[in-house]
Amino acid sequence: MATIERLNNVSHKDVKINTAYSPELGDNVMFSLTFPAEFRSAQAYYPIVFHKDAQSGQFYPVVLLGFQQQENLFLNQGKWDAGYVPINVSRQPFSIGVQDGQRVVNIDTDSAKVSADGEPLFLEFGGHAPYLEKVSGMLEALHHGVEENKGFVECLLEFKLIESFTLDVTLNDGSQHQLLGFYTINEDTLNELTDEQYLTLRAKGYLTSIYMMLASQSQFADLVSRKNKQLNLA
Amino acid sequence: MNTSVKKILIVGGGSAGWLTASLLAADYRFDKSVQISLVESPDVKHIGVGEGTWPSMRGTLQRIGLSETDFIVSCNASFKQGSWFRNWHTHTHPNHYHHPFTPPVAAAEFDIAPYWFPHSDKVDFAHAVSTQAAMIEAGLAPKQITTPEYAFVNNYGYHLDAGRFVQLLQRHAVNQLGVEHILDNVVSVNGDKDKPIQSIQTAQHGLIEADLFIDCSGFASLLLGQHYDINFLEQRHVLFNDCALAAQVNYAEPETAIASATLATAQSAGWIWDIGLQTRRGIGHVYSSAHSSDENAEHTLRRYIGEQGADVEVRKIAIKPGFRETFWQHNCVGVGMAAGFIEPLEASALVMVELAAKFISEQLPSGQRQMAITAKRFNETFRYRWERIIDFLKLHYVLSKREDSDYWRDNRDAASIPESLSEMLEVWRGHSPSRYDVPMAEELFPAASYQYILYGLQHCAGKKSKPVNPRFQQRALQQFQYMAAQKQQLKAGLPNNRTLLKQIASHGLQTI
């Protein structure tokens, strides 16, 4: 369960955040939302693919962190085992809320990350601690990212650039697994776009994002080797 | 497709006319030499037969280029996963069975029915061999919001508002597919009765010539019936129902569950349909005027509807069960009610339109000499289809054990049973229904459908004949267990109908 409260320096004066990453802290997610502005950092570590939202069926880009529900292969003894932590992960347990037309910071006070020790949110006289400043920046980026995703996905769908894919994975013990329910860039369609369509993508700034998604596919091999290592098969 | 049929005129603008026009126009949209026009009278009100479709409608809508989201939103549509028959077996105690759209599991591999016999007292056939009956009873949708349009988790067709469906098809056919729409009355038909039709005389638009005339004028059957005088083969001696009383009933609450199947509840002189759309239910009583007065029928219908619809308006529709002796005569082919009509027990009206439109489109003759051959084949195919529908509907009545009226006893009278059906019933003493009973490639009702009805009505087809072949014993057991496990999984993952319909209205279905 989550209890979402609007963050303020009175009731949350003494709240501290455990900034470690572990299944116990709720970081055992198989995938997490990302957005074009984050692709450059994310593609260096994670496959970036599309997923459909379970409530709306709408596509959104995600970084893939594991092969099955609740599997995050980047969690390692309380640490995040990669040079870049996706914003939608590192912003936990905070989210964006809207109050009187203004964006505000919400906190899930039921999150296991809320603890007695850790990073303080407020300074002695009520000002924002550096950690909270950093979180606010992330939430701002996330907000714009989610907005940007809509246009990005809409344009790609219009040009029929999204296709479903099935990843067949064979682990070192010979066991075979299949990854379903994710979507990627259709390269055949991409290569057959008209000049006009191609220029549209360039003008909207989506070309880089598209190619970064394609490049990120090489991270599937890394994901498989992490899985092998986790099962002591490496 | 190389054809000398360049100009096609569809006469009549109901669902038959606009479906046929849309399908032809979609198939020939890259062939500018084929021109499709539809003339309809501004004065005719459409009957709007059957608010239920078969799963084939998904393919048809996709083929004519409609988005499923647009269709669902604009036609008040919901999902139909089959028919749910209540009290057809006997009248003495409540009973029900399903005819789901999903065939029995592993049907392509082997016939699972004989392996179900030993368990038939514990689990009914539909529940043993498919997951769909359980989903229907749980009111769950056949897909999720993440399932692409026209794709499914469980096979489905639709319940729809026929009036709005015609409007949607018309808009699409005219605006997107370039069908010429002529609003006018047909005054006369020009041509000798033993020759092709030359033209149609209209009140305002003069003469309209065409190479092929498609009669979609409904019961009036302007071309086939009135011009060519083609015999109507009435089938009331087999299927007694000749009247329907139809009503529209609002849901008690905006959040009332929407049923996922057509409910068909047997009555003493007919049966009642109950179809759940997004905003209302369509409920109607089909009955035999020889066995019930209109007053009694209305009383039965109002009792079914109950308090909540105490003041609803009831509309009477006459049904003349039967079909034309010929459907394609010279350069004129009848589609929809102009060709025939049978009570909506298995919602066969729209699927017959789809099948006819596809046949015409795919087999458009290359010249007058070929047209005669195409016509002959069309007539044979559709004669066969009408006869099979009649057999299949009659089966629902023949196997009933109801003793509450002459209606049911008369229905079991050997004289009222077509020979083709009697033959099948004889074969089924020793065998479960198989593809040998229904051998055509495009059967309307495959062997699976016969199995659902027979075993649903507790007929013992093949049960006592011979020991079960042990060859598939293990496979069958696995399949039964698989079905049980699947049911649990699906129940956890599928939304209810109303939830999914709301999600579709807000977000639309993805195309992939």
Describe the protein.
- The complex is a heterodimer of chains A (234) and B (512).
- Chain A has one domain.
- Chain A contains 7 helices and 13 strands.
- Chain A has helices at residues 36-42, 87-90, 130-158, 187-191, 195-204, 206-216, 219-230; strands spanning 4-6, 16-17, 31-33, 48-52, 59-64, 75-76, 79-80, 94-99, 102-108, 114-115, 119-120, 162-170, 176-185.
- The longest helix of chain A has 29 residues, at 130-158.
- The radius of gyration of chain A is 19 Å and the shape is globular.
- By secondary structure, chain B is α+β, with helices and mostly antiparallel strands.
- Among the domains of chain B are: 7-49 and 178-235 and 321-387, FAD/NAD(P)-binding domain (3-Layer(bba) Sandwich); 242-318, D-Amino Acid Oxidase, Chain A, domain 2.
- Chain B is built from 16 helices and 21 strands.
- Chain B has helices spanning 15-27, 56-63, 68-74, 113-116, 125-129, 132-137, 162-176, 222-227, 294-305, 348-362, 368-398, 406-411, 419-427, 447-456, 473-493, 497-507, and strands at 7-11, 35-40, 78-80, 82-86, 96-100, 157-159, 180-183, 186-190, 199-202, 207-209, 212-215, 232-234, 243-250, 262-267, 270-276, 280-287, 315-318, 322-324, 328-329, 332-334, 340-341.
- In chain B, strands 5-4-14-15-16-13-17 form a 7-stranded mixed β-sheet. A 6-stranded mixed β-sheet of chain B has the order 7-2-1-11-20-19. A 3-stranded antiparallel β-sheet of chain B has the order 8-9-10, with no helix packed on it.
- In chain B, a hairpin with a 4-residue loop joins strand 9 and strand 10 (207-209).
- In chain B, helix 1 (15-27) packs parallel to helix 10 (348-362).
- At the A-B interface, strand 12 of A face helix 16 of B.
By CATH's scheme, which homologous superfamily of the domain at 7-49 and 178-235 and 321-387 in chain B applies?
A: FAD/NAD(P)-binding domain
Q: Would you tell me the structural class of the helices and strands of chain B?
A: alpha+beta
Give the biggest sheet of chain A.
Answer: 3 strands, antiparallel
Helix content of chain A: 25-40%
Q: Encode the helix/strand succession of chain A as letters.
A: EEEHEEEEHEEEEHEEHHHH
* Biggest protein-protein contact in the assembly: A-B, 14 and 12 residues
Count of helical segments of chain B? 16
**What's the domain count of chain A?**
1
Multimer state = heterodimer
| Share of residues in strands of chain A | 25-35%
Side-by-side strand order of the widest sheet of chain B: 5-4-14-15-16-13-17
| Shape verdict of chain A | globular
Mean pLDDT of chain A: 94
Percent of sequence in beta strands of chain B? 15-25%
Number of strands of chain B: 21
CATH class of the domain at 7-49 and 178-235 and 321-387 in chain B: Alpha Beta
In which order are the strands of the major sheet of chain A placed?
Answer: 1-9-8
Cα gyration radius of chain A (Å): 19 Å
Number of separate strands of chain A: 13
InterPro entries (chain B): FAD/NAD-bd_sf (IPR036188), Flavin-dep_Halogenase_NPB (IPR050816), Flavin_halogenase (IPR006905), Trp_halogen (IPR033856)
Organism (chain B): Alteromonas ponticola
Protein name (chain B): Tryptophan 7-halogenase
Pfam families (chain B): Trp_halogenase
